[in-house]
Write a structure and sequence with these properties.
The structure holds two protein chains of two kinds.
Chain A: H1 2-22, H2 37-70, H3 90-119, E1 130-137, E2 140-145, E3 150-153, E4 155-159, E5 164-170, E6 175-179, E7 183-188, E8 194-198, E9 204-210, E10 222-228, H4 230-242, H5 259-271, E11 277-278, E12 281-282, E13 297-298, E14 303-304, H6 307-315, H7 317-320, H8 325-328, E15 331-333, E16 339-341, H9 352-362
Parallel strand pairs in A: 1-5, 4-10
Antiparallel strand pairs in A: 1-2, 2-3, 5-8, 6-7, 6-9, 9-10, 11-12, 13-14, 15-16
Helix pairs in contact in A: 2-3, 5-9, 6-9
Chain B: E1 25-26, E2 31-32, H1 40-46, H2 50-79, H3 89-123, H4 132-151, H5 178-206, H6 219-250, H7 264-298, H8 305-318, H9 334-362, H10 371-394, H11 396-402, H12 406-436, E3 438-439, H13 442-468, H14 485-515, E4 517-518, H15 553-559, E5 576-578, H16 584-600, E6 604-606, E7 609-611, H17 614-633, E8 638-640
Antiparallel strand pairs in B: 1-2, 3-4, 5-8, 6-7
Helix pairs in contact in B: 2-3, 2-4, 2-14, 3-5, 3-7, 3-12, 4-5, 4-16, 5-6, 5-16, 6-7, 6-8, 7-9, 7-10, 7-12, 8-9, 9-10, 10-12, 10-13, 12-13, 12-14, 13-14, 16-17
The chains are: A alpha+beta, B mainly alpha.
Chain lengths: 366, 645
């Protein structure tokens, strides 16, 4: 009987082990595949709590199962015989309280470490740190590099091995910046500036997403973070500062550009320019499109950046992202407390030809 | 009105019933105040009997449990596949908002209230609550709020999440009526909860049987008391928050509007000062039920009764000091974050104490695996797992990854389904003989339990993995290459199985009620005082209020020492006074309902009526008039001379 029980136990543990082997944790957005110091500390703290609770689970859960098994009413028992009517045992009770408190100290240590590490940038990471201002909009992200005076959207580019200080703000409702492989989330709250920092130890494309419910298209508020070597980062910055070959508001385009692109720039100036900036010129209500063709995604990380998707996106953005302001128009607060809505694409009546032209133009923005 | 001229008429001089009294008329003589032998529908609508009120709470709660369950299944159906389009983004957001609101305010809280009403009174050896008509008012006001918020489906259901974070819930980003429906329904539900809580506190403190000292109270009654205190201390915070939100939306204030100097964080503080104690409002009664069921089926007293009671009180107290652990990611300072993290860890101690003591109760007992016992054991197991993930959240760096992810969804469903709901089902199976005089079917009950247990774990365990691999909550869609597809599919299958389990249990409840097998007085060999009465109890509960001489009085009467047995109690020489039924609680609640509906439809078109505030004024009039007439009608009543057994 005893051997049977040990066998069962071993089989169960083996089963659990096999089961856990099937659990993959390296997905795009996995917090258990940390690639930077902040995420590593957070994952380590998670494992501390996981091991502690697993230990407690085995001890307490085991005691529960054992008590249920050992003290079940057996067929051989006399059903009328009463068990001892004991009311408790102060020593056991106090002992268990002290034991619980001791367990919590184990959790408290990495917790306080983590708080101190994330609330401001620690000295040892300060060298060569850059700053990015992150602004959340319904439902996209603006990334400003105040030291470089450039702006991009929805695809953050950072140098590998350097700390990046993020100042988090919101233009409308509360959002939350979550880039699991580099750091846990911090909220973007209107009326205040929050701080977090990230650092990527390996180059790569990291996936992030808004984690605070922010309205209809919350699920579509994704972003990417591309960590690149220092030189590539410098080059990227230089390209971004240089802007497009032909300024967006130039009257004429050089002859080497196809007719469609010329027409596309024209359509862009009439319909898109008031909200979207290209090379330092244009509006600020929508994502900055200066290096648009270089980005891997459109629609804030939801669609791959290719001509077909881009056409769909511009033709019917509200079908892809419900409530989309590109379609319905951007609501703007007036000083009096009211709202006015700028015209969106639903009023623009773009033909398919216009849209194809804009797509062609946007693909030249490198 | 002077005391001496009260219209109350209790003929103390006469030892006989007061049939000679002329029946009273209500609403200025328009209708008769219902008497004994009135039509059953009138009886249920106007009853002041805590048992009938408890049953109605339970019935409505189970109904809304099914409504919230259908919402949950629609959510899971949408997430079955990546980039699914079973429901639109807007509808999905409405579904999870209404699912959360429904389950918390319309299913678990009223199910708790059902047992407070029915069992707590019997457990302290009383004949009714302190204010029977106020009790009826609580019930009907709860129904008014529940109907109001579900009516919103016909116009626009709220889509801002159950905690309605400003500024998303403000007029700028939520211009429709959904938020107004939500605000006003929650206010009305708050009135119901507050009235009920004051009633329960008064009852427990004042109406205990002689000898029922506080430290002899059954644990479920203790948890009722603590929960009631939590409600009266926590609800004012959300009342204020909702009022401020209403003013922001309609009257040009800027409490939460950062553009004009307001603070969105203020909403979160106010909401969670309510919201965190609310969690304990949901779970403490469940702990009370389990603390009744485990001793009964282990045939042993509760291990460490004083510690269980004190840890319950301690949890309730600490519950007001940990709200900001819902806000670790909103940018609080180092000191605040650290303090709230440590306080949160502290709360694990009394919670752990309860689990240890439940195991201590089983230890050395003679455990019978009845259906209620299975549910209670399932409760301990899953509540323990939910507690472990709760410890993880208390660690701030861990929470930065887990906050607002599916890991949190897994955590609170382990606590609220695996915890609260399993305990409530344990209570239903345990107390069904008490409430109906009929036993639930044991085998079918166990089948339902195992279906629920399996389905629940299949539905919610994978969510831990989803959360840790980066899936945020409240997203109506996800890309197919995130590695989340399999776990989401399994979770949906599990939810469906859980739904089948809960559905089958509800069917059994209805079936048992209609045609279950009759049972004797004490089918479980139970311990506490509610089992000293008939099944179901007579209207007056106890022919004589017993004298209490032991903590587990019914057990002591059966097996205890002579000095622990209950005294015979005094008989009532003039018969037992029973208060009359009343129309006014119902009409007052209806007035409140109209006020709520009228405010929601302020300057809106209501079914073709360009409505301003007329409905609110009419409703307010009905409410005030009802309360006024209610104050004047008096309890009246009649006397019963039970045949002594």
């Amino acid at each position: 009987m005893r051997r049977f029980r040990i066998l069962t136990l071993v089989a169960t543990l083996l089963g659990l082990l096999l089961f856990s082997g099937c659990i993959e944790v390296t997905q795009n957005q996995s917090a258990l595949d940390p690639k930077g110091p902040v995420a590593k500390q957070q994952a380590d703290a998670f494992y501390v709590t996981l091991y502690l609770t697993t230990f407690l689970w085995i001890v307490v859960g085991g005691a529960l199962l054992w008590a249920v098994w050992r003290y079940r009413l057996k067929k051989t028992d006399d059903p009328d015989e009463l068990p001892e009517q004991s009311h408790g045992h102060p020593l056991i009770e106090v002992g268990l309280i002290l034991f619980s408190a001791a367990c919590l100290v184990v959790v408290a240590v990495p917790t306080i470490e983590g708080i101190l590490m994330t609330k401001s940038l620690p000295e040892e990471y300060a060298e060569g740190a850059i700053t990015v201002d992150v602004t959340g909009y319904q439902w996209w992200w603006a990334f400003d590099y105040p030291e470089e005076d450039v702006t991009t959207a929805n695809e953050l580019v950072i140098p590998v091995g350097k700390a990046v200080k993020l100042n988090l703000r919101s233009a409308d409702v509360i959002h939350s910046f979550w880039l699991p492989k580099l750091a846990g989330k911090v909220d973007l709250v209107p009326g205040q500036e929050n701080f977090m920092w990230i650092q990527a130890d390996e180059p790569g494309m990291y996936w992030g997403q808004c984690a605070e419910f922010c309205g209809d298209s919350h699920a579509y508020m994704l972003f990417r973070c591309r960590a690149v070597p220092e030189e590539e980062y410098r080059q990227w910055l230089a390209d971004l500062k240089a802007g497009p070959e032909v300024p967006v508001d130039a009257a004429e385009m050089p002859a080497e550009y196809p007719e469609q692109v010329v027409q596309g720039k024209d359509v862009f100036m009439k319909n898109c320019y008031s909200c979207h900036m290209v090379g330092g010129k244009g509006g600020v209500n929508g994502p900055n499109l200066t290096n648009f063709a270089e980005r891997s995604t459109i629609a804030s990380g939801w669609l791959d950046n290719n001509e077909e998707n881009l056409f769909r996106w511009i033709k019917e953005p509200h079908k892809i992202k419900p409530g989309n302001y590109m379609w319905y128009g951007v609501p703007m607060k007036t000083p009096g407390g009211g709202m006015i809505v700028m015209d969106g694409l639903d009023k623009a009546e773009l033909s398919d030809e216009d849209i194809h032209a804009v797509v062609a133009y946007l693909q030249t923005l490198k | 009105m002077a005391n001496g001229t009260s219209t109350t008429s209790i003929p103390h001089h006469s030892g006989h019933q007061s049939e000679d009294e002329k029946p009273q008329r209500s609403f200025f003589g328009l209708v008769q105040r219902p008497q004994q032998g009135c039509h059953p529908i009138v009886d249920w609508l106007t009853t002041v009997d805590h048992k009938k009120i408890g049953i109605m709470y339970g019935g409505f709660a189970l109904l809304f449990l099914l409504v919230g369950g259908v919402e949950a299944l629609m959510i899971r159906a949408q997430l079955f596949l990546p980039e699914n389009d079973f429901v639109s983004a807007r509808l999905y957001n409405q579904l999870f908002t209404m699912h959360g609101t429904t389950m918390i305010f319309l299913a678990v809280m009223p199910l708790n209230a059902a047992f407070f009403n029915y069992m707590m009174i019997l457990q302290i050896g009383a004949r009714d609550v302190a204010f029977p008509r106020l009790n009826a008012f609580s019930l009907w006001t709860f129904v008014a709020g529940a109907v109001l918020i579900n009516l919103s489906w016909f116009w626009e259901a709220f889509h801002g999440g159950w905690f309605g974070y400003a500024p998303l819930s403000g007029k700028d980003y939520n211009p429709g009526m959904g938020a107004d429906f939500w605000i006003l329904s929650l206010q009305i539900l708050g009135v119901a909860s507050l009235a009920a809580s004051f009633n329960f506190i008064t009852t427990i403190l004042n109406m205990r049987a002689p000898g029922m000292k506080m430290m002899r109270l059954p644990v479920f009654t203790w948890m009722t008391l603590i929960t009631s205190f939590l409600i009266i201390l926590a609800f004012p915070a959300i009342t204020i928050a909702l009022l401020e939100l209403m003013f922001d939306r309609h009257f040009g204030t800027h409490f939460f509007d950062a553009t004009f100097g307001g603070r969105p964080i203020l909403w979160q503080h106010l909401f969670w000062i309510f919201g965190h104690p609310e969690v304990y409002i949901l779970i403490l009664p469940a702990m009370g039920i389990v603390s009744e069921v485990l001793p009964t089926f282990s045939r042993k007293p509760l291990f460490g009764y004083p510690l269980i009671v004190m840890s319950g009180a301690f949890i309730g107290f600490l519950g007001f000091a940990v709200w900001s652990h819902h806000m670790f990611t909103v940018g609080l300072g180092v000191v605040a974050t650290t303090a709230f993290a440590l306080m949160t860890m502290l709360i694990a101690i009394p919670t752990g104490v309860k689990i240890f003591n439940w195991i201590g109760t089983l230890w050395g007992g003679k455990i019978r695996f009845t259906t209620p016992m299975l549910y209670s054991l399932g409760f301990i197991w899953m509540f323990m797992m939910g507690g472990f993930t709760g410890i993880m959240h208390s660690s701030v760096p861990v929470d930065h990854q887990q906050q607002d992810s599916y890991f949190v969804v897994a955590h609170f469903h382990y606590v609220l389904i695996g915890g609260a709901l399993f305990a409530l089902f344990s209570g239903i199976y345990y107390w069904m003989p008490k409430m109906s005089g009929k036993l639930m079917h044991e085998t079918w009950g166990k089948v339902s339990f195992w279906i629920m247990f399996f389905g629940f774990n299949l539905a919610f365990f994978p969510m831990h993995l989803l959360g840790m691999t980066g899936m945020p909550r409240r997203t109506h869609s996800y890309l197919g290459d995130m590695g989340w597809n399999e776990w989401n599919a399994w979770s949906t299958v599990g939810a469906l199985i859980l739904g089948v389990g809960i559905g089958s249990a509800v069917v059994q409840i209805v079936y048992t009620w209609a045609r279950g097998e009759k049972c004797g007085k004490d089918p479980w060999d139970a311990r506490t005082l509610e089992w000293a009465t008939e099944n179901p109890p007579k209207d007056y509960n106890f022919a004589r209020i017993p004298e209490i001489n032991a903590r587990d009085q019914v057990w002591a009467d059966k097996y205890g020492k002579p000095e622990e047995k209950s005294g015979p109690g005094e008989s009532e020489p003039h018969g037992i006074h029973m208060p009359d039924r009343s129309w006014y609680p119902l009409s007052a609640s209806f007035g409140l309902f109209m006020v709520g509906l009228g405010f929601v439809f302020h300057k809106q078109n209501f079914l073709g009526w360009d409505h301003n505030l007329e409905m609110a004024f009419i409703g307010g009039g009905i409410l005030l008039l009802s309360v006024y007439l209610w104050a004047l009608e008096g309890p009246r009543g009649y006397h019963i001379h039970p045949e002594e057994d």
